[in-house]
Amino acid sequence: MAADTHANNHVRIFDTTMRDGEQSPGASMTATDKLEIAQTLDAMGVDIIEAGFPIASNGDFEAVRAVAGVVKNAVVCGLSRAGVKDIERAGEAVKGAVRPRIHTFISTSPIHMKHKLQMEPHQVLDAIEGSVRAARNLVDDVEWSAEDATRTDRDFLKRCCEIAIKAGATTINIPDTVGYSFPEEYGALFKDLIESVPGADKSIFSAHCHNDLGLAVANSIAAVQNGARQVECAINGLGERAGNAALEEIVMALRVRGDALPYRTQIDSTKLTRVSQMLSRVTGFPVQYNKAIVGKNAFSHESGIHQDGMLKNNQTYEIMRPEDVGQGATHLVMGKLSGKHAFKEKLRELGYELSDNELVDAFTRFKDLADRKRHIYDEDLVALVDDALSHGADSIQVKRLRVVAGTDGPQTAEIDLVIDGQDVWRTARGNGPVDAIFNAIKAATPHEAQLELFQVHAVTEGTDAQAEVSVRLSENGRAAAARAADADTLVASAKAYVAALNRIMRKRDPRAHPQEMGAA
Ligand code: KIV
Ligand code: ZN
Could you tell me the CA-to-CA distances from 238 to 170, 286, 310, 374, 488 in Å, in that order? Predict the structure, then answer.
């Protein structure tokens, strides 16, 4: 290996959930969402948080700036293309961070240079030098990326990396932008670059893999085995198209297979499930049940033979313990008679510190639920509190709902909404009860948003389980998703639709909701 930087076994975890992840259609996040996620990532030990692409919009700029203002330990990074305006905007957005970074990129493959950039290779080399120098004038920590590196001519890529290092880049990122590489190839690419690019020994080389062939995690690990000491990844593998390498999978692969992979991260893995669920709530993207590490079934044993083995010794079928990744066993927690103190303690155990007002509100909801549902599990509390926290400040709220459904139509819904403090009541028919509810909401608050996704799942087992409903709406190319939970599936549907509508409205006019822009 060329030098200390690559021989050192600390692998930096660079989280791009809020930048590449947010580029996933329908996964857009508000500044409030980003603040919550960033603080959780920081507490979990993520080394670098890429909070957005500041030139993309004022909302993105403000979100990155807000994240830079609250993160205590991690480096906060803003993405920029190679133009001076982009770089200045990124520099402005991250300048309040304790440890600011500008991440600038340009395409280097023949197909991208010709068709996307319409630039000659020598112009790209000039742009690399100019952009890295401009970024270095603003911050000490500059990352440079060769977009589409894995389809770039090898000698040209080496030249690009050399110029970026000479101009002052401290991290060199080699993305597999289109998810095309195989682990052996990607690993060999890192080995070659680190051994032959002048100045490579003073730089951190970084992997950034997309999952188009399902190889993003395998490729990232191959890069680490060949000298990469930063891995760019996203919670739940969120990202463009098929997504980025999943953060939780990289972290646990390095931990569980320490025998074969003698590297370490500084991630507190017990927070992985919590942050995965938080992201799923914010984006409305469900976590697939069999998702590695954080899926609901990742530690479930259904067949008799497996259950028998587990009872004898859990290492028969488990290579890590559920508690290592923050997946607790399902506990029966509380009932109708539980008091506020026990409730508060339970929430603290689940990772929630609520303000007094939030606690009163959550406790009222809990009592309400306990009246309707005999057994209340940890999952019920998580759904209930997440629901209260995410919809508390919405300007449209569901107050009351009555639905007539069944075999003998027409199905009708009567809804009472509170819109900016005013009661608005409407009734509508529909093709089924959910359609009737959504029509009634549209009648109460006319809008052009289209329903893109409607999904229901049960929070726990049993017919009295709470339903968790995800809704995604889109309007003029802007999408917003939201989730809501209730023991009544139709009430959860109405709440989820209204929550997504509130989000769309905030995107229409962010100035009307300064707290969403980080200006509060
Ligand atoms: O996939 C990619 O190439 C990127 C770069 C902007 C780093 O996301
Ligand atoms: Zn990417």
Answer: 26, 11, 32, 36, 30
